[in-house]
């Protein structure tokens, strides 16, 4: 008797689909790649052809140059080598997708990275029942329960109001997190100009081109200190404590990341204002998602795998960890 999902071959470099001669999120260049989203631990350059959402392809163009692209709209029905598949939203970043694979009467979902809470910069996660659910576990421990987004950003605004002679410098991952912080602030009614590090400009422009209103953004470089007092400035995490930041007016150093739940991580980065804001599912969201999609098996791709596998097995859901390489511990 064949095993569930035995037509899928998880390898250290990615998930291989032999019948389609295609890889999902391969960590090295391949002839045909199906890509869930644009983060560097899932999307790489140099593939023969790339099947992804138009937004993910646009992100890859910015990061790696023009791709031999096959745009895939959400819900578009496709087939390769007898494997039927389509993409549905993952709620992670702009253009992020779960890849729904159907073959031999089975449905397998490669979810990529995902979150369940509302995000005004991308399409929300779509619950799709399946036989095998391949899930991340970046925050796969019960200690990781993310607070409400606007509660965290209220802390940022309170710090700004209390320190009019300083600025608040927010470290935020260049793809997804930076744009989400900006858009969430706009939704909360913050209409002042927001200043950004030059490394964020191209991806912010791309989000705007895809209909995400970020309001007025200004470059933070080449600006007098006085102009930056009482302002919010965003930069990549690596710029928080480098020479670039030293020219700012006594910055309150903040960091927007799910890892700010871990105090040691905040201390290591000299973060004065930790903001627990993640683009990944927390523990409760991981559990709720497994319950919602009701799979017969759960395969865990990376992160804190053991706890999630244990939770599944306690509930008579067959589960195993996949040994995939090339996944980075993102600043989330």
UniProtKB/TrEMBL annotation:
GO MF terms, alphabetically ordered: exonuclease activity; ligase activity
Top-tier EC class: hydrolase
Domain Metallo-beta-lactamase: start-end pairs: 11-173
Gene3D superfamilies from the UniProt entry: Ribonuclease Z/Hydroxyacylglutathione hydrolase-like
Pfam families assigned: RMMBL
Enzyme Commission number(s): 3.1.-.-
Keywords: Exonuclease, Hydrolase, Ligase, Nuclease
Protein name as annotated: Ligase-associated DNA damage response exonuclease
Organism in which the protein naturally occurs: Sphingomonas rustica
